[in-house]
Amino acid sequence: MMGILEDLATPLGFCWAVLVLSAAWLVLRESTRRRALLPGGLALILFLFGGTPLSAWMLAALERPYAGVKAEALPDADAIVMLGGILGPSANDLYGVDFNAAADRAIAATELLRLGRAPVLVAGGGAMQSLPEKPLESDLWLPWVEAWKLKPRRVHQLGACRNTHDEGMAVKRLMEEHRWKRVILVTSASHMRRAEGVFRRLDIPVDCFAADFRGISTLESGGFRVGVPRPTRLQCANDCLHEVFGWLVYRWRDWVR
User: Fold this and answer.
1) Which residues contact residue 160 at a Cβ distance below 8 angstroms, ignoring those fewer than 6 apart?
2) Which of 32, 117, 127, 251 is deepest in the core (most CB within 10 A)?
3) How confident is the model at residue 95, as a pLDDT?
4) How high is the pLDDT of residue 169?
5) Among candidate residues 207, 97, 113, 188, the one with its CA nearest the CA of residue 153
6) pLDDT tens-digit series, residues 92-124
7) Where are the domains of the chain?
8) What's the 3-state SS for the chain?
């Protein structure tokens, strides 16, 4: 009971409860029953995506093809390519960065470096527009790699890429310049299908090593409980729909194979 009250005390839980109560009140009055469709429909959508395992199942479906890959079993490659989107600037945090939920990518990439899967690290990510000097995301991340003595023989930065296709194009140029034969691609599991599709469309030989299995981990940690909508579950739905629509846009632009 206490857990339900705590969920209802959050902004999302409170708004959902208001929608439910509004719909119920309108239904009880015969003259306003049709008006209950709007608040009732919104409450139902929030419940399905935020109060049930549906969103975690959806996200996990994108992640499962890349689950179970062992770092030790990967073949050696010329470079490890870690896509951006793992952090933001933060003057009060260590190394001046605030790692987000996708920071598992950084852990995965550094572990591959430690295992010697490739001698070169390729770091992606855009420019930090919120800072006056607009450093690259990788400018903020690499000091952490160096401090932990995980720096590879060589590091390449992809520059201010706007999206995954830009990152793929930048990697393609590096491969041609340095005559690389194969790379290991590191990104979030839910994003891997689209990222792999971009690289294969550009004829880049790639082995995939995914991180950040948010959907699967949510289910493994008890995501089957049905109750008041939670922001974490809505985030799973957001990530899934972002990838589904992103794939469709990339297909329309002929950016994926």
Assistant:
1) 126, 127, 134, 136
2) 117
3) 73
4) 95
5) 113
6) 877 777 888 888 998 899 889 889 999 999 988
7) 2-62+217-252, 68-212
8) CHHHHHHHCCHHHHHHHHHHHHHHHHHHCHHHHHHHHHHHHHHHHHHHHHCCCHHHHHHHHHHHHHCCCCHHHCCCCCEEEECCCCEEECCCCHHHEEECHHHHHHHHHHHHHHCCCCCEEEECCCECCCCCCCCEHHHHHHHHHHHCCCCCCEEEECCCCCCHHHHHHHHHHHHHHHCCCCEEEEEEHHHHHHHHHHHHHCCCCEEEEEECCHHHHHHHCCCCCCCCCCHHHHHHHHHHHHHHHHHHHHHHCCCCC
Could you tell me the pTM of the whole model?
0.87
Distance CA 101, CA 46 (A): 22
pLDDT of 18 > 70? The answer is yes
Tokens matching residue 114: 């430690």
Residue 65: band (very low, low, confident or very high) from pLDDT cuts 50, 70, 90: very high
- pLDDT tops 70 at residue 133: no
Structure tokens that stand for 171 in this block: 């990697």
For residue 247, is it left (φ>0), alpha (ψ between -120 and 50) or beta?
Answer: alpha
Per cent of the chain over pLDDT 90 is 56
Architecture of domain 68-212 in CATH?
Answer: 3-Layer(aba) Sandwich (3.40)
